[in-house]
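Re: export button greyed out
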Amino acid sequence: MHVWLIVGLAGLLSLVASTRASAQQSATLTLSGGLDLRAGLQVEPTVETETGLSSAFLNVRTVFADAQGDRLILVAQGDVEEGIDNSHLYQAYGQYKGPLGRWNLRAGRYLVPFGLLAYYDTERLLLAAHEVEALGIKLDEGVELFGYFGAFDYAVSVSRGYDDRPTPIARVGWQGQDVRLGLSYLYGRLPSYADDEVVPLKDLLSGARLINKNRVAIDYEQLFGPLTVRAEPIAGTDDGRFVAGAYLEAGYALSPRWELAANAAVLDSDLVGTRWRAGPALSFRVLPGVFVRGAYEHRNDFGEATDLFLVQVYGEYSRTWALPSRGKSHGAAP
Amino acid sequence: MACILRNQATEIAASLLVAVLGLLLVPLAARADVCVWRDPERTMTELFPTATDYRTVTKRITPDLARAIEERIGIALDDPERAEFNYYEITGRAEDGSQRIGTVLALAGAGDYGAIEVVIGLDPGDRIVGVHIQRMRERNADKIRSDSFLGQFRGKSKEDPLQIGRDVEPVAEAPTASQTIALAVRKMVVFYDVLRSGGNT
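Workaround output, generated via the alternate export path:
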């Protein structure tokens, strides 16, 4: 698998070198950061509580442009959870953007382009989509080719998975006015079940085992005025045994600041068992970039039921700077 | 059981109160509520069918520039708008042989049901070639997106009022959205003019 990664990185570096040779002209740097403070109260089967800092993140994004347009994008995001000792890399990749973004080559650690995750990451929301349970993977190191053609878009990714066997993922999508549809495929040797997108291998091996997974999914997103609906039916095999499931989410904007939402996810595997969860959430935008959210979730993991109340305070900021440019500028920019 | 829940609820409430107060102390200008250009390539080809690429330009907004912009639009800028502003130079093959065929700008405003993300295209003479609503959750979205409303902005420039009731007729069923979109368009035209000239307009 490392061969794929090395080839991708070598390709990316050669494209970067050609960009620099063709007179790089400008660059921008964007720093984003946020605090995600959560308190959880589990009331069934036992009363437990968690308080304090849940996580913080810092994202650095640099865009280098040549004479024609934005060409090279470098992204690194670090997350810290429950103290500095529990920090990890969320995304870190280099991306070479072809003309007009019709094709892009990305290498590094990125969100896998499967289903809704290709354009909708719920990492900082209380209502989480189901990719972690349904796939056992959310972020991975690899090489991705993606882009668009008219109303259609595509993505092909080969990543290293959990035991360095190639994990191929592909998605084709279509986008209309306020509606998106996509068809995805994944094959990989992945954990039989997972609860977090970053599962250290030692923890993984103590709680779950690696199995061969095939997955096909249809992702759907549509806006009906204040109502947003997302769905992702999924099917496949776990070590050759049938698995099927679905994710459904609806959000309704009550006002510019208040939003009511609910989601439900179910996954039934002949090999591993059945998991499902459902619950509502309410979100209030206190100030620009600052939200207070509350949610209730009932979940059933392989027959064990839990009820959980969650409250979240989430704040984010973002600033962009123009970096000193090199070479002659063109166009209207002073 | 009730006592445990009461103690834990107090602990949670105290933690969240501290968190909210902490976030409120973050300078307003550092908070983000900006319009992200989600599908730049698709919008770009709608506004500029002959586009071949685009380049991001970031401009720092100094207090003097912010004042110049506010004087022109007649209202105070929102806090997130005071830090910096991005616009996108569109490259392609223009009739006169030049490479820059226009500029795209994006800005969000508040509708009845959340943010309305507005994208406009300006030709090299700074006239509006089109207005695109990137994302919104308003009722009557079809009427808001109709050419009878958005088409009113086409061909206009910084010399025009770009105001509801003066040179733009609102969508009767969506007065707030109409106002928000017209203001966003006016803001972007003024932002571009002021930032490009360094405030000497």
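The CA atoms of residues 50 and 139 of chain A lie 26 Å apart. The button fix ships in the next patch.
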